[in-house]
Specification:
Length: 303
């Protein structure tokens, strides 16, 4: 068996037990094994396909996206396969590896200063909006507001978790950034079993965590920094806020003790999952998502 197209290889990622010393079983879905290296392949594929279907993205067009790196990489990969030019705006804090990967796929990168708010005119999101307005025949993916982001996880990620656990999952611990994953997968799982608890993971200094007074943080790909429509639609039972220090400390533990080489956002998610699983029982099954690989951050010195 083989796939006719690389995009068909997205999804069906394995679910692996993480041997934390906790009463509950903790399972991690290894999304870094997607072709583009992260969970963002799923949402990027859904959003681009829907844009093509509805005529928002036309032949010869340009795809524009604001990204902390992984979404942009997925868009650049898809653009290369489908023959679209891609322009990706990123913050200066995005790793050199991610920027190099975007270039390798042929994307144009626009690096912007780090900002505390999504609507800051000098930030990567507002810059992407401006470039979109200035670029004829372009499509702005806008993962933070695009409903296909959450739909991809409702129709794809959530069902995989349910099937792989044979319906035994009792809790999911999911990162909150654009909030597409926690909104879509969480909604699907609660529809299958209303007793499943959906736990969100945020940075400790995000807009949401600080109730509107954000402070800079180093973790990439995590942090709710605006009033997300995906978050508003999500059924979240609780939030766990994780500091940079705890996220980075978990990276070494995962790699050197368990063999999982993952990125900083996953470090935060894994820390939250471990701490939360300590409060549960042996009958509980916690599923979390390891969103991307640590290979995209090696020059940061986290490991």
């Amino acid at each position: 068996m083989y796939y006719e197209n690389l995009l068909y290889a997205i999804g069906s990622t394995p679910l692996v037990k993480v041997p934390f010393d906790t009463p509950a079983t903790v399972l991690a879905k290894l999304e870094y094994l997607n072709p583009g290296g992260s969970i963002k392949d799923r949402s990027a594929y859904f959003m681009v396909e829907e844009a093509i279907r509805t005529g928002k993205l036309k032949p010869g067009g340009t795809i524009i996206e604001a990204s902390s790196g992984n979404q942009g990489i997925s868009i650049a990969m898809i653009g290369a396969i489908k023959g679209y030019k891609t322009i990706i705006t990123v913050s200066e804090k995005v790793s050199k590896e991610k920027q190099a990967t975007l270039v390798a796929y042929g994307a144009q990168i626009v690096v912007c200063k780090p900002t505390e708010k999504l609507d800051d005119p000098e930030g990567y999101y507002a810059t992407a909006e401006r470039i979109h307005k200035e670029t004829p025949n372009s499509f702005f993916v806008a993962q933070y507001y695009n409903t296909e982001n959450a739909r991809s996880h409702y129709y794809w990620t959530g069902p995989e978790i349910w099937q792989q656990t044979h319906g035994t999952v009792t809790h999911v611990v999911l990162g909150a950034g654009s909030c597409g994953t926690i909104c879509g997968a969480g909604k699907y799982l609660k529809e299958r079993n209303p007793n499943i608890k959906v736990i969100g993971v945020d940075t400790s200094t995000s807009w949401l965590a600080t109730k509107g007074s954000p402070k800079p943080y180093k973790v990439e790909g995590l942090g709710v920094d605006y009033p997300s429509p995906h978050l508003a639609a999500a059924s979240i039972d609780d939030f766990i806020n994780v500091s940079d220090e705890n996220a980075f400390a978990m990276l070494k533990k995962l790699a050197r003790t368990y063999g999982f080489l993952v990125g900083p956002a996953t470090g935060a998610i894994a820390y939250a999952a471990e701490q939360y699983a300590k409060t549960l029982t042996p009958k509980d099954v916690v599923v979390t998502i390891f969103t991307d690989s640590g290979r995209a951050y090696l020059t940061k010195g986290y490991y």
